Amino acid sequence: xxxxxxxxxxxxxxxxxxxxxxxxxxxxxxxxxxxxxxxxxxxxxxxxxxxxxxxxxxxxxxxxxxxxxxxxxxxxxxxxxxxxxxxxxxxxxxxxxxxxxxxxxxxxxxxxxxxxxxxxxxxxxxxxxxxxxxxxxxxxxxxxxxxxxxxxxxxxxxxxxxxxxxxxxxxxxxxxxxxxxxxxxxxxxxxxxxxxxxxxxxxxxxxxxxxxxxxxxxxxxxxxxxxxxxxxxxxxxxxxxxxxxxxxxxxxxxxxxxxxxxxxxxxxxxxxxxxxxxxxxxxxxxxxxxxxxxxxxxxxxxxxxxxxxxxxxxxxxxxxxxxxxxxxxxxxxxxxxxxxxxxxxxxxxxxxxxxxxxxxxxxxxxxxxxxxxxxxxxxxxxxxxxxxxxxxxxxxxxxxxxxxxxxxxxxxxxxxx
Length: 417
What we know:
- This protein is α/β, with parallel strands linked by helices.
- The chain folds into 2 domains: 3-218, Rossmann fold (3-Layer(aba) Sandwich), CATH 3.40.50.10840; 229-413, 3-Layer(aba) Sandwich (Molybdenum Cofactor Biosythetic Enzyme, Chain A).
- Helix content is 39%, strand content 26%.
- The protein is built from 17 helices and 20 strands.
- It has helices at residues 11-22, 37-40, 58-74, 92-103, 138-143, 155-158, 162-172, 186-197, 209-212, 215-218, 246-258, 268-273, 277-290, 303-306, 317-334, 345-354, 397-406, and strands at 3-8, 28-31, 46-50, 77-83, 107-111, 119-122, 125-128, 134-137, 149-153, 177-181, 204-207, 229-232, 236-241, 261-266, 297-302, 337-343, 359-367, 370-376, 384-388, 410-413.
- The strands form 3 sheets. A 15-stranded mixed beta sheet has the order 9-10-5-11-4-1-3-2-17-18-19-16-13-15-14, sandwiched between helices. The protein has a 3-stranded antiparallel beta sheet with strand order 6-7-8. Strands 12-20 form a two-stranded antiparallel sheet.
- A hairpin with a 2-residue loop joins β6 and β7.
- It is globular.
């Protein structure tokens, strides 16, 4: 099988996209950062790479993505999927340019929808949520950062069938062209995939986890089924929430209402004023290990998430994230946690770095956009890890996570270490 790479600008994007392929039987790993690529490459696999460029300047983002694409190309990766943010954050056009330039390809297709997570593209507009009140015009967003002709193929043309869609693509394609696909449901994705499967020219494909599930069909990948094994989950669950998104706050509230939880709230203002506050937080975590009525889950969360009257200090996000990572490291050193669930791409990356991990194996998807896998390397090597973007999931998402992890106290594991 050809090497296939996914390039994402944050960790949760890399993992929630890669898991779509893992579920279809492909060996899939996530590289925590660019330096981890060489140590994770083996034969016949999918590698998802986190470039960490969501908040980078356009110049820095272009250079990083161009360099990593060239490196992957030199290491035998023939197909690159450029994962983009589902609400169009980051340097989307700039990073697409970098991939196209590295492969010297002048045609790209973009499919930004994720119907399963309430992201729809209709007439070129991105609608977020079932009520579809929030919308953004995708061509306008791309035009700001990419100097290419942009076309949109609307639902009417897609639903005419794959043959007519292919004819439409052939009429629109030209040098330096970006073609955006409308998508409202998985049936639309299936038609797009069939048309691209029969398109005979080189192209770059960009999108979200929605279209990523169909990469094997689009690129005619041979399937590599791997033997499954089981790993017993005996310890408790550690949940880490460093994201300020209201969706995560609601998910935590529902978790606390339904399960016994020990909550450690991080005072963000105190952390910024007095870094020694870490000692108090670590003492709280050590106390949670000693209580006789052991809760099923321990939650480490920022106060801005659980106390609505506190305004997030986003300018100091990096310092707070670093502190969260040290708290998690102390918790895992103190307690026999078997699973780690992290919300927020920057938080997940920082925590995994603190643990000394180089990446993660992907094993399964609990609900759409919430992958589960195992850490590679570091002090928590082999530990079960769940990652989730801050804005993903319904109110019961964390309940679904803990139910999955508790199911017969076993997690089905796919890729052998």
